[in-house]
Amino acid sequence: MRDTNFVLSPQHVHVLGISPDLLSRRCATRAVVACGSVFLLVLFLRTQGISLSFSFVVVFIVGAPLAAWTMTISQLRKMATKLQRDMDLAVAVFLDLINVLLAGGAGVETAMIAAAGAGDGWGFEQLRTAMARAQSSRRSYWEALRETGEAFGIESLEEVANSVQLAGEHGARIRQSLAAKAASLRIRNLARIEHEAEQRTERMGIPVVLLFIGFILLVGYPAFAGTVAAL
Question: Residue 90: which residues within 8 A CB-CB, separation 6 or more?
């Protein structure tokens, strides 16, 4: 399933926790409702003596379900993207907590379990679920976290798992690897948040400009109309 305007990627579906069949039924239901609403509107206009051209009616009947489907997919994609970004922030905090616990003398596995249990929210819940799954299957915690990152499309989690694995294979200190990765995630998340804030600021300027233009037209139109009438 490719990530287009009409479908969600498998990662987005997994993040939302809904099955593809349920997603299809939800989108189809909204499309049918939109089509029926347009059909009822056309019937109402005909009862009021307002006739519309056949091509105009066909465009609306076909376009309304398509628009409803696209809007539903867009809303779900935004929800999934927000959860993914929250997960990025949770991973950075998770690594910082692990570093603090390792500095206090805790073991790696003990530090990971304690760090995952210290936070709340969707991100930390998924971290705890991944480690519980690793415990039950007697696998490495980092391997389970990598699988979670791949399933949810969380690149930061995959990068952390890979870097820790490399550090273990080459005998490097895991604390240094985790600290460097945590710092990198903080910088990246901060840059993303600043970029989103700038975009919101730019969008807020559009209504102000429109209000200013409307005020100019409101003030200037009487004078313009009076000048035209005098001519």
Answer: 119, 121, 122, 123, 124, 127
For 228, the enclosing helix (H) or strand (E) is: helix 174-230
CB–CB of 110/101 below 8 Å? yes
Under a CB-based contact definition with an 8 Å cutoff, are residues 148 and 154 in contact? yes
The sign of the dihedral angle between the CA atoms of 25, 27, 29, 31 is: negative
Cα distances from 149 to residues 5, 90, 160, 227, 229, in angstroms, run: 23, 12, 10, 68, 70
Residues 66 and 93 grouped into a single domain: no
Residue 26 maps to a domain: yes
176 and 98 together in one domain:
yes
Within-domain flag for 210: no
Averaged confidence pLDDT in the chain: 79
Q: Is the pTM of this model over 0.85?
A: no
Query: 200-231 pLDDT, tens per residue?
Result: 787 777 787 888 888 887 877 777 777 777 76
